[in-house]
Amino acid sequence: MVSVSLNPKELIPRVVGRYSPVVVDRGEGVYIWDLSGKRYMDFTSGIAVVNTGHSHPRVVQAIQDQAAKIIHAQQNILAHEPMMKAAVELTSTLPSKLNQVFWANSGAEAIEGAIKLAKVVTGRPGIIAFRGAFHGRTHAAMSVTSSRSKVRGHYEPLLSSIYFAPYPYLLRSPYKGAPEDADLKYFEELEYLFETMVMPDDVAAILMETVAGEGGYLFPTKRWVQKVRALCDKHGIMLIMDEIQTGVGRTGKMWGFEHFDIVPDIISVAKGIASGMPVSAVVSDKALMDKWAPGAHGGTYGGNAVGTAAAYETLRVIREERLVENSAAMGQKLMDGLRDIQADYPVIGEVRGLGLMIAVEFVTRDGGPNTSAVANVIQSCFDESILLINCGTFDQAIRVIPPLVVNDEQVAEFLGVFRRAVAAL
User: Fold this and answer.
1) Which of 369, 342, 359 lies closest to 400, judged by CA?
2) Which domains does the chain have, with CATH numbers?
3) pLDDT digit string (tens) for 89-143?
């Protein structure tokens, strides 16, 4: 056998931007080990994917058991227990009107499916999305994305009839007046689209991330989200909520939209749903799903038997091991600790979050985005064997998103390393 050098720089395309140089060998819980045996604490969760921790033994067993039975049971040809049991388990966590599941493979696919469903249901062409949003890199998903120009750049023409409104970024609100009323100004900008760009009866859906992810981990107010829901109701517009990063316990509730006391018409789910297997879903009311004619949407690998077996077991682990509750408790400890650090170091402009979806935004002396501070803190933490990633259009914030199995000791260790990294600035 010929020996081959596994050099990431040679073998991985340049387009796959790397957040770290680690070549991983294995993972367990909040930890991963590289090929030399060095251990790292993973506070990226594979970008909010491994909510049950790396290689949770129950999920591993479910994958192994199913792979020994059948791997590919194409859903147009064969129904199988894993996809149906996972659908039952998934919808049991949701409001009654979100009761039917279309399985797919990626977050971008779930967004594409949700947009297509909304257009079929309403018979309308338009989609309203939000500035700073990230929904994926396939063509329609890219068309409703505006977190960074490099995601869209050089791919024109994109999907037509897409309209953008500003998403609440309360730290950097451009609006004058009382800060607590900034959300009302953001909502006025959304309504202004109906006066300037598109008539409401041409809009199929308003598509929003429950929390803006790649755009900076931006958390809207309950009032703003409820006004968006009411606006959709007023004009017969579908409300699609992108729960790809916020779902499956990440925010300290099973679903991010639960924080806002509303129910969307359609949700897109991926990332944490199957502990790292490529599984996603569009979830809506069966009455709406029935408007999709047979064959109007589909995919060869959607509802994969091994993937949905992993999803079923993932959802059971989340429930039985009370990981949503742990997300809320550990998230509060992290928020408290990070705000203590902020109080000592004004280079941190804001700590914001829900559950274990937390952002630490760094600012310059004049309050602008401090990209270099973010990069330096991430590097300092890496040097102490903790993995972190950034977010925001200007890379102005650090995401703190450990697996939902993280414990007190690990939180304390992280906070100590993070404090040293900030102090070193």
Assistant:
1) 359
2) 8-55+322-423 (3.90.1150.10), 59-320 (3.40.640.10)
3) 999 999 999 999 999 999 999 999 999 999 999 999 999 999 999 999 999 999 9
